[in-house]
């Protein structure tokens, strides 16, 4: 029960990594606000948690709207008395060549993925500062570290999330708040299902030493560590959850070397 007695907001908690992390946090004792722009998805996650005996509620939240963001934090603190953890998983993505990326696409991705991160983290950090404790976990991407085709807006936004998280780590440390960033690689989420073509999947797997996509649950385990007291001396860190993608260079792989896991 690594999060017993703790209160968390999980943005983007209606699907994918956010939903998986919400379930993992709840299993470890956290009380949860599921904040998502998709009201139906947020409600479904919160309902599933409550049916499993956990304490959770849903809020429809547009992370680009400062009033909605402040309301999510305020309602959570009012209901549970404090806010200990923010996992900011809300985001969108597109796969569009740099030369073909339209300004409207650029602005929309930056607004949700980067500005939304800034607004949500700032509001949560203010509540955490007043109590002298907090865990902020942001979601970047391997696309925010390595250049890749079709990632002009998405990669720029996710690189910005990393830079912002490091600044937060430095400035918020005196208040007992840590700020860390997850950089998932290819993870089987609803967003990836929309973004990754068959060609993209083939190219991705060729660069992943583990030769497979990850699961939202595997990212949730990393989020759990960064959200808990076990990571008390870890801040400003970018943790890749990518099957070795960021570590890999040239890989010569023969078909005989690709074996199915045993047992």
Global Rg = 18 Å
Q: Briefly note the CATH topology name.
A: Rossmann fold
Number of strands: 7
CATH architecture: 3-Layer(aba) Sandwich
Structural category = alpha/beta
Alpha carbon gap, first and last residue: 29 Å
Order of helices and strands: EHEHEHEHEHEHHHE
Low confidence ranges: none
Order of the strands making up the biggest sheet = 3-2-1-4-5-6-7
Total of helices: 8
- Percent range of helical residues: 40-55%
Major beta-sheet overview: 7 strands, parallel
Q: Write down the CATH class.
A: Alpha Beta
Number of domains: 1
* Average pLDDT metric: 94
The proportion of strand residues reads 5-15%
* Shape category: globular
State the fourth-level CATH superfamily.
NAD(P)-binding Rossmann-like Domain
Protein name: SDR family oxidoreductase
Organism: Stakelama tenebrarum
GO biological process, one term: fatty acid elongation
InterPro entries: KR_dom, NAD(P)-bd_dom_sf, Sc_DH/Rdtase_CS, SDR_fam
Summarize the structure.
With 263 residues, the protein is α/β, with parallel strands linked by helices. The protein has helices at 16-27, 39-51, 66-80, 103-131, 152-172, 190-195, 198-206, 216-227; strands at 7-11, 31-36, 56-60, 85-88, 134-139, 177-184, 238-241. The protein is globular and about 55 Å long.
Please describe what this structure looks like.
- InterPro entries: KR_dom (IPR057326), NAD(P)-bd_dom_sf (IPR036291), Sc_DH/Rdtase_CS (IPR020904), SDR_fam (IPR002347).
- Belongs to the short-chain dehydrogenases/reductases (SDR) family.
- Residues 6-185 form the Ketoreductase domain.
- This is SDR family oxidoreductase.
- By secondary structure, the protein is an alpha/beta fold.
- The chain has a single domain (7-240), classed as Rossmann fold.
- The chain contains 8 helices and 7 strands.
- It has helices at residues 16-27, 39-51, 66-80, 103-131, 152-172, 190-195, 198-206, 216-227, and strands at 7-11, 31-36, 56-60, 85-88, 134-139, 177-184, 238-241.
- A 7-stranded parallel beta sheet has the order 3-2-1-4-5-6-7, with helices on both faces.
- Helix 4 packs parallel to helix 5.
- The longest helix is centred in the middle third of the chain and has 29 residues, at 103-131.
- The chain is globular.
- It starts with 6 loop residues before the first strand and ends in a 22-residue tail after the last strand.
- The mean pLDDT is 94.
